[in-house]
Design a protein that fits this description.
The chain is of the alpha/beta class. The protein has two domains: 245 residues, Thiamin diphosphate (ThDP)-binding fold, Pyr/PP domains (Rossmann fold, 3-Layer(aba) Sandwich); 133 residues, 3-Layer(aba) Sandwich (Rossmann fold). Helices cover 41% and strands 19% of the residues. The chain has a seven-stranded mixed beta sheet with strand order 3-2-4-5-7-6-12, sandwiched between helices. Strands 9-11-10-13-14-15 form a six-stranded mixed beta sheet, with helices on both faces. The protein has a two-stranded antiparallel sheet with strand order 1-8. The radius of gyration is 21 Å and the shape is globular.
Amino acid sequence: MTSKRTGIESSLAIAEAVKLANTDVIAAYPITPQTHIVEGLAEMVANGELDAEYIPVESEHSAMSACLGSSAVGARTFTATAGQGLILMHEVLLVAASMRLPIVMTVANRALSGPLNVWGDQSDAMSTRDSGWIQMFVENGQQAFDQVICAFYIAEHPDVLLPTMINVDGFHVSHVIEPIEMLDRKTVDGFLPPYKRKYTLDPDNPVSMGCFAAPNMYAETRKDLDAALRDSRKVILDVWRKYGELTGRHYKLVEQYKADNAETLLVTAGGYSENAMDAIDKMQSEGKKVGLVRVRLWRPFPYEEMVQALSGASNIIVLDRAISLGGPAPICSEIRAALYAGDKRPQVASIVGGLGGRDVSPADFEKLVEMGLQQIKAGRTAETIMYGVRE
Protein backbone atom coordinates (compact mmCIF):
# COMPACT_ATOMS: atom_id res chain seq x y z
CA MET A 1 0.00 0.00 0.00
CA THR A 2 1.20 3.49 -0.86
CA SER A 3 -0.22 6.41 1.09
CA LYS A 4 0.53 10.04 1.85
CA ARG A 5 -0.34 11.85 5.08
CA THR A 6 -1.43 15.42 4.49
CA GLY A 7 -3.33 18.19 6.24
CA ILE A 8 -6.56 18.77 4.39
CA GLU A 9 -10.14 19.86 5.02
CA SER A 10 -12.44 16.88 5.48
CA SER A 11 -14.74 17.99 2.65
CA LEU A 12 -11.80 18.09 0.24
CA ALA A 13 -10.60 14.70 1.48
CA ILE A 14 -14.03 13.35 0.53
CA ALA A 15 -13.62 14.87 -2.94
CA GLU A 16 -10.19 13.21 -3.22
CA ALA A 17 -11.74 9.84 -2.34
CA VAL A 18 -14.38 10.30 -5.03
CA LYS A 19 -11.63 11.14 -7.53
CA LEU A 20 -9.55 8.11 -6.54
CA ALA A 21 -12.62 5.91 -7.05
CA ASN A 22 -12.68 6.94 -10.73
CA THR A 23 -16.22 8.18 -10.44
CA ASP A 24 -17.96 8.65 -13.80
CA VAL A 25 -20.74 11.11 -12.96
CA ILE A 26 -21.26 13.73 -10.25
CA ALA A 27 -24.62 15.49 -10.13
CA ALA A 28 -25.01 17.96 -7.30
CA TYR A 29 -26.41 21.28 -6.12
CA PRO A 30 -24.42 23.42 -3.68
CA ILE A 31 -25.80 23.82 -0.17
CA THR A 32 -24.12 24.72 3.11
CA PRO A 33 -22.25 22.95 4.67
CA GLN A 34 -21.50 20.41 1.94
CA THR A 35 -20.59 22.90 -0.82
CA HIS A 36 -16.82 22.43 -0.53
CA ILE A 37 -17.19 18.77 -1.51
CA VAL A 38 -18.82 19.44 -4.87
CA GLU A 39 -16.77 22.60 -5.47
CA GLY A 40 -13.65 20.49 -5.09
CA LEU A 41 -14.99 17.88 -7.50
CA ALA A 42 -16.07 20.52 -10.03
CA GLU A 43 -12.54 21.93 -10.00
CA MET A 44 -11.03 18.45 -10.48
CA VAL A 45 -13.27 17.81 -13.50
CA ALA A 46 -12.58 21.26 -14.96
CA ASN A 47 -8.80 20.96 -14.73
CA GLY A 48 -8.68 17.39 -16.01
CA GLU A 49 -7.74 15.62 -12.77
CA LEU A 50 -10.95 13.59 -12.90
CA ASP A 51 -12.36 12.24 -16.16
CA ALA A 52 -16.02 12.52 -15.23
CA GLU A 53 -19.22 14.28 -16.19
CA TYR A 54 -20.16 17.01 -13.72
CA ILE A 55 -23.86 17.86 -14.02
CA PRO A 56 -24.81 21.24 -12.50
CA VAL A 57 -28.52 21.05 -11.74
CA GLU A 58 -31.19 23.45 -10.53
CA SER A 59 -32.06 21.65 -7.29
CA GLU A 60 -31.26 18.65 -5.12
CA HIS A 61 -34.35 16.88 -6.43
CA SER A 62 -32.86 17.21 -9.92
CA ALA A 63 -29.45 16.11 -8.65
CA MET A 64 -30.76 12.80 -7.37
CA SER A 65 -32.91 12.37 -10.48
CA ALA A 66 -29.80 12.78 -12.64
CA CYS A 67 -28.03 10.24 -10.45
CA LEU A 68 -30.82 7.74 -11.13
CA GLY A 69 -30.23 7.96 -14.85
CA SER A 70 -26.44 7.83 -14.70
CA SER A 71 -26.37 4.88 -12.33
CA ALA A 72 -29.00 3.02 -14.36
CA VAL A 73 -26.80 3.14 -17.48
CA GLY A 74 -23.88 1.70 -15.53
CA ALA A 75 -21.93 4.81 -14.52
CA ARG A 76 -20.27 5.06 -11.11
CA THR A 77 -22.25 7.91 -9.56
CA PHE A 78 -21.75 10.30 -6.64
CA THR A 79 -23.57 13.22 -5.08
CA ALA A 80 -23.53 15.19 -1.86
CA THR A 81 -26.01 17.34 0.02
CA ALA A 82 -27.08 18.60 3.44
CA GLY A 83 -30.14 19.51 5.49
CA GLN A 84 -32.99 20.90 3.42
CA GLY A 85 -31.28 19.61 0.28
CA LEU A 86 -31.63 16.04 1.53
CA ILE A 87 -35.30 16.71 2.30
CA LEU A 88 -35.85 18.02 -1.23
CA MET A 89 -34.26 14.80 -2.53
CA HIS A 90 -36.45 12.60 -0.37
CA GLU A 91 -38.95 11.54 -3.04
CA VAL A 92 -36.15 10.36 -5.31
CA LEU A 93 -34.14 8.69 -2.51
CA LEU A 94 -36.84 6.04 -2.22
CA VAL A 95 -36.79 5.44 -5.96
CA ALA A 96 -33.00 4.98 -5.96
CA ALA A 97 -33.27 2.27 -3.31
CA SER A 98 -36.22 0.48 -4.89
CA MET A 99 -34.46 0.44 -8.28
CA ARG A 100 -31.34 -0.99 -6.57
CA LEU A 101 -29.07 1.77 -7.92
CA PRO A 102 -25.68 1.88 -6.13
CA ILE A 103 -25.35 5.67 -5.83
CA VAL A 104 -22.93 6.95 -3.18
CA MET A 105 -23.77 10.16 -1.33
CA THR A 106 -22.16 12.08 1.50
CA VAL A 107 -24.43 14.18 3.70
CA ALA A 108 -22.88 17.03 5.69
CA ASN A 109 -25.45 16.69 8.43
CA ARG A 110 -27.36 19.88 9.17
CA ALA A 111 -30.35 20.99 11.21
CA LEU A 112 -33.73 21.17 9.48
CA SER A 113 -35.99 24.19 9.19
CA GLY A 114 -37.70 25.82 10.85
CA PRO A 115 -36.37 28.01 12.15
CA LEU A 116 -33.71 28.26 9.46
CA ASN A 117 -30.37 26.92 10.71
CA VAL A 118 -27.31 25.95 8.67
CA TRP A 119 -25.31 24.35 11.50
CA GLY A 120 -24.88 20.69 12.18
CA ASP A 121 -27.04 18.12 13.86
CA GLN A 122 -28.44 14.78 12.63
CA SER A 123 -32.04 15.76 11.92
CA ASP A 124 -31.60 15.35 8.18
CA ALA A 125 -30.13 11.85 8.45
CA MET A 126 -32.91 10.70 10.76
CA SER A 127 -35.56 12.00 8.36
CA THR A 128 -34.31 9.52 5.74
CA ARG A 129 -34.05 6.54 8.07
CA ASP A 130 -36.65 4.49 6.20
CA SER A 131 -35.59 5.35 2.64
CA GLY A 132 -33.92 1.98 1.96
CA TRP A 133 -30.36 3.35 1.80
CA ILE A 134 -27.38 1.85 3.60
CA GLN A 135 -26.43 4.56 6.09
CA MET A 136 -23.38 5.03 8.30
CA PHE A 137 -21.85 7.69 10.55
CA VAL A 138 -18.23 8.85 10.61
CA GLU A 139 -16.42 10.80 13.31
CA ASN A 140 -13.59 12.59 11.49
CA GLY A 141 -12.07 13.30 8.09
CA GLN A 142 -10.02 10.10 7.97
CA GLN A 143 -13.10 7.99 8.49
CA ALA A 144 -14.98 10.01 5.86
CA PHE A 145 -12.21 9.42 3.31
CA ASP A 146 -12.10 5.70 4.11
CA GLN A 147 -15.84 5.17 4.05
CA VAL A 148 -16.38 6.89 0.70
CA ILE A 149 -14.00 4.41 -0.92
CA CYS A 150 -15.61 1.51 0.95
CA ALA A 151 -19.10 2.77 0.08
CA PHE A 152 -18.53 2.37 -3.66
CA TYR A 153 -17.36 -1.21 -3.08
CA ILE A 154 -20.33 -1.99 -0.83
CA ALA A 155 -23.01 -0.29 -2.93
CA GLU A 156 -21.85 -1.82 -6.23
CA HIS A 157 -21.32 -5.34 -4.92
CA PRO A 158 -23.56 -7.71 -6.90
CA ASP A 159 -25.02 -9.08 -3.66
CA VAL A 160 -25.99 -5.57 -2.51
CA LEU A 161 -26.76 -3.04 -5.29
CA LEU A 162 -28.12 -0.43 -2.89
CA PRO A 163 -27.43 3.30 -2.58
CA THR A 164 -25.16 4.20 0.32
CA MET A 165 -25.07 7.33 2.47
CA ILE A 166 -22.12 8.51 4.57
CA ASN A 167 -23.16 10.95 7.29
CA VAL A 168 -20.55 13.58 8.18
CA ASP A 169 -21.19 16.22 10.85
CA GLY A 170 -21.70 19.60 9.19
CA PHE A 171 -18.92 22.07 10.06
CA HIS A 172 -17.69 20.13 13.11
CA VAL A 173 -16.21 17.52 10.75
CA SER A 174 -16.84 18.75 7.20
CA HIS A 175 -14.85 21.98 7.60
CA VAL A 176 -12.09 20.76 9.93
CA ILE A 177 -8.53 20.58 8.59
CA GLU A 178 -6.68 17.58 9.96
CA PRO A 179 -3.91 15.16 8.94
CA ILE A 180 -5.41 12.43 6.75
CA GLU A 181 -3.67 9.40 5.28
CA MET A 182 -4.54 9.46 1.59
CA LEU A 183 -4.22 6.36 -0.56
CA ASP A 184 -2.79 6.56 -4.05
CA ARG A 185 -4.70 5.61 -7.18
CA LYS A 186 -2.88 2.31 -7.70
CA THR A 187 -3.84 1.18 -4.19
CA VAL A 188 -7.48 2.19 -4.64
CA ASP A 189 -7.62 0.52 -8.07
CA GLY A 190 -6.34 -2.69 -6.50
CA PHE A 191 -8.98 -2.53 -3.77
CA LEU A 192 -12.09 -1.25 -5.55
CA PRO A 193 -13.48 -3.47 -8.34
CA PRO A 194 -14.85 -1.76 -11.47
CA TYR A 195 -18.60 -1.18 -11.55
CA LYS A 196 -20.17 -3.74 -13.88
CA ARG A 197 -23.95 -3.58 -13.75
CA LYS A 198 -25.75 -6.65 -15.08
CA TYR A 199 -28.88 -4.81 -16.22
CA THR A 200 -28.51 -1.32 -17.68
CA LEU A 201 -30.64 1.10 -19.64
CA ASP A 202 -29.52 0.47 -23.21
CA PRO A 203 -31.51 1.37 -26.35
CA ASP A 204 -30.10 -1.69 -28.10
CA ASN A 205 -31.20 -4.03 -25.30
CA PRO A 206 -34.31 -2.47 -23.74
CA VAL A 207 -35.29 -3.27 -20.15
CA SER A 208 -37.91 -1.82 -17.83
CA MET A 209 -36.94 -0.14 -14.56
CA GLY A 210 -39.03 1.52 -11.88
CA CYS A 211 -42.28 -0.09 -12.97
CA PHE A 212 -45.75 0.41 -11.51
CA ALA A 213 -46.80 -2.16 -8.88
CA ALA A 214 -50.43 -2.87 -8.07
CA PRO A 215 -51.54 -4.11 -4.61
CA ASN A 216 -50.91 -7.73 -5.60
CA MET A 217 -47.17 -7.01 -6.04
CA TYR A 218 -46.23 -3.95 -3.95
CA ALA A 219 -45.79 -5.72 -0.61
CA GLU A 220 -43.53 -8.35 -2.16
CA THR A 221 -41.23 -5.71 -3.66
CA ARG A 222 -40.90 -3.94 -0.30
CA LYS A 223 -40.21 -7.23 1.44
CA ASP A 224 -37.44 -8.01 -1.05
CA LEU A 225 -35.89 -4.56 -0.56
CA ASP A 226 -35.95 -4.99 3.22
CA ALA A 227 -34.27 -8.39 2.89
CA ALA A 228 -31.58 -6.97 0.59
CA LEU A 229 -30.85 -4.13 3.02
CA ARG A 230 -30.61 -6.48 6.00
CA ASP A 231 -28.40 -8.92 4.08
CA SER A 232 -26.01 -6.14 3.04
CA ARG A 233 -24.36 -6.25 6.47
CA LYS A 234 -22.43 -9.37 5.41
CA VAL A 235 -20.83 -7.52 2.51
CA ILE A 236 -20.25 -4.42 4.65
CA LEU A 237 -18.31 -6.48 7.17
CA ASP A 238 -16.30 -8.20 4.44
CA VAL A 239 -15.40 -4.91 2.72
CA TRP A 240 -14.37 -3.34 6.02
CA ARG A 241 -12.27 -6.42 6.79
CA LYS A 242 -10.46 -6.12 3.46
CA TYR A 243 -9.96 -2.40 3.94
CA GLY A 244 -8.57 -2.98 7.43
CA GLU A 245 -6.09 -5.52 6.09
CA LEU A 246 -5.03 -3.00 3.44
CA THR A 247 -4.72 0.12 5.61
CA GLY A 248 -4.61 -1.01 9.24
CA ARG A 249 -7.79 1.00 9.90
CA HIS A 250 -10.48 -1.40 11.03
CA TYR A 251 -14.20 -0.62 11.28
CA LYS A 252 -17.04 -2.42 13.06
CA LEU A 253 -20.81 -2.10 12.90
CA VAL A 254 -20.81 -0.97 16.53
CA GLU A 255 -17.63 0.33 18.14
CA GLN A 256 -16.72 0.51 21.82
CA TYR A 257 -14.38 2.77 23.74
CA LYS A 258 -13.20 1.73 27.20
CA ALA A 259 -16.48 -0.13 27.68
CA ASP A 260 -15.12 -3.22 29.46
CA ASN A 261 -16.58 -3.59 32.97
CA ALA A 262 -18.49 -0.31 32.63
CA GLU A 263 -21.65 -0.07 34.71
CA THR A 264 -22.90 2.88 32.64
CA LEU A 265 -22.54 3.12 28.86
CA LEU A 266 -22.98 6.28 26.83
CA VAL A 267 -24.18 5.79 23.23
CA THR A 268 -23.31 8.34 20.52
CA ALA A 269 -23.04 8.63 16.73
CA GLY A 270 -20.90 10.96 14.63
CA GLY A 271 -18.24 13.54 15.35
CA TYR A 272 -19.29 14.39 18.90
CA SER A 273 -18.18 10.89 19.85
CA GLU A 274 -14.61 12.20 20.05
CA ASN A 275 -15.65 14.74 22.70
CA ALA A 276 -17.39 11.89 24.50
CA MET A 277 -14.11 9.93 24.50
CA ASP A 278 -12.38 12.81 26.30
CA ALA A 279 -15.15 12.81 28.87
CA ILE A 280 -14.86 9.04 29.34
CA ASP A 281 -11.10 9.38 29.89
CA LYS A 282 -11.68 11.96 32.62
CA MET A 283 -14.51 10.10 34.32
CA GLN A 284 -12.56 6.84 34.38
CA SER A 285 -9.53 8.65 35.84
CA GLU A 286 -11.88 9.65 38.66
CA GLY A 287 -12.89 6.03 39.22
CA LYS A 288 -16.27 6.21 37.51
CA LYS A 289 -17.26 3.07 35.63
CA VAL A 290 -18.47 4.76 32.46
CA GLY A 291 -17.74 3.63 28.89
CA LEU A 292 -18.76 4.55 25.35
CA VAL A 293 -20.52 2.74 22.51
CA ARG A 294 -20.56 4.39 19.06
CA VAL A 295 -23.05 3.70 16.28
CA ARG A 296 -21.16 3.20 13.00
CA LEU A 297 -23.82 1.49 10.86
CA TRP A 298 -27.26 3.08 11.13
CA ARG A 299 -29.08 1.16 8.41
CA PRO A 300 -29.34 -1.78 8.41
CA PHE A 301 -29.38 -1.41 12.18
CA PRO A 302 -26.99 -3.94 13.81
CA TYR A 303 -29.28 -5.23 16.56
CA GLU A 304 -27.21 -8.26 17.57
CA GLU A 305 -23.95 -6.32 17.74
CA MET A 306 -25.59 -3.53 19.69
CA VAL A 307 -27.00 -5.92 22.29
CA GLN A 308 -23.57 -7.52 22.64
CA ALA A 309 -21.87 -4.13 23.00
CA LEU A 310 -24.29 -3.06 25.71
CA SER A 311 -24.31 -6.36 27.60
CA GLY A 312 -23.15 -6.18 31.19
CA ALA A 313 -24.05 -2.54 31.77
CA SER A 314 -26.80 -1.55 34.18
CA ASN A 315 -27.42 1.91 32.74
CA ILE A 316 -27.50 3.10 29.14
CA ILE A 317 -27.52 6.81 28.28
CA VAL A 318 -28.22 7.61 24.64
CA LEU A 319 -27.41 10.99 23.09
CA ASP A 320 -29.50 11.73 20.01
CA ARG A 321 -28.68 14.79 17.93
CA ALA A 322 -32.18 14.85 16.46
CA ILE A 323 -35.58 15.24 18.04
CA SER A 324 -38.50 13.09 16.92
CA LEU A 325 -41.35 15.51 17.52
CA GLY A 326 -44.06 13.83 19.55
CA GLY A 327 -42.21 10.53 19.88
CA PRO A 328 -39.06 8.84 21.20
CA ALA A 329 -35.67 10.02 19.94
CA PRO A 330 -34.51 7.93 16.94
CA ILE A 331 -31.34 6.17 18.13
CA CYS A 332 -32.72 5.67 21.63
CA SER A 333 -35.84 4.01 20.23
CA GLU A 334 -33.67 1.54 18.30
CA ILE A 335 -31.58 0.81 21.39
CA ARG A 336 -34.68 0.10 23.44
CA ALA A 337 -36.08 -2.13 20.71
CA ALA A 338 -32.80 -4.07 20.53
CA LEU A 339 -32.65 -4.57 24.29
CA TYR A 340 -36.32 -5.49 24.71
CA ALA A 341 -35.75 -9.00 23.34
CA GLY A 342 -32.75 -9.63 25.58
CA ASP A 343 -32.67 -11.54 28.84
CA LYS A 344 -31.32 -8.59 30.78
CA ARG A 345 -32.90 -5.20 30.28
CA PRO A 346 -30.79 -2.32 31.58
CA GLN A 347 -32.34 1.06 32.25
CA VAL A 348 -32.12 3.39 29.24
CA ALA A 349 -32.13 7.18 29.53
CA SER A 350 -32.85 9.31 26.47
CA ILE A 351 -31.16 12.70 26.01
CA VAL A 352 -31.37 15.01 23.00
CA GLY A 353 -28.59 17.59 22.61
CA GLY A 354 -26.31 19.34 20.16
CA LEU A 355 -29.24 20.53 18.03
CA GLY A 356 -28.64 23.26 15.50
CA GLY A 357 -24.86 23.06 15.87
CA ARG A 358 -24.81 23.69 19.63
CA ASP A 359 -21.59 22.32 21.07
CA VAL A 360 -21.50 19.37 23.44
CA SER A 361 -18.09 19.62 25.05
CA PRO A 362 -16.33 16.93 27.10
CA ALA A 363 -17.51 18.75 30.24
CA ASP A 364 -21.07 18.72 28.86
CA PHE A 365 -20.82 14.96 28.37
CA GLU A 366 -19.92 14.55 32.05
CA LYS A 367 -23.04 16.54 33.00
CA LEU A 368 -25.08 14.61 30.48
CA VAL A 369 -24.09 11.28 32.04
CA GLU A 370 -25.00 12.57 35.51
CA MET A 371 -28.38 13.78 34.27
CA GLY A 372 -29.07 10.41 32.68
CA LEU A 373 -28.22 8.56 35.87
CA GLN A 374 -30.47 10.88 37.86
CA GLN A 375 -33.28 10.22 35.40
CA ILE A 376 -32.83 6.47 35.79
CA LYS A 377 -32.69 6.72 39.60
CA ALA A 378 -35.91 8.73 39.58
CA GLY A 379 -37.65 6.11 37.42
CA ARG A 380 -38.41 8.64 34.67
CA THR A 381 -36.87 6.84 31.69
CA ALA A 382 -40.02 7.25 29.60
CA GLU A 383 -39.16 10.94 29.31
CA THR A 384 -36.64 12.53 26.95
CA ILE A 385 -34.26 15.10 28.40
CA MET A 386 -33.46 18.13 26.22
CA TYR A 387 -29.90 18.92 27.26
CA GLY A 388 -28.83 22.56 27.53
CA VAL A 389 -32.22 24.02 26.53
CA ARG A 390 -33.23 27.22 28.30
CA GLU A 391 -36.58 27.06 30.04
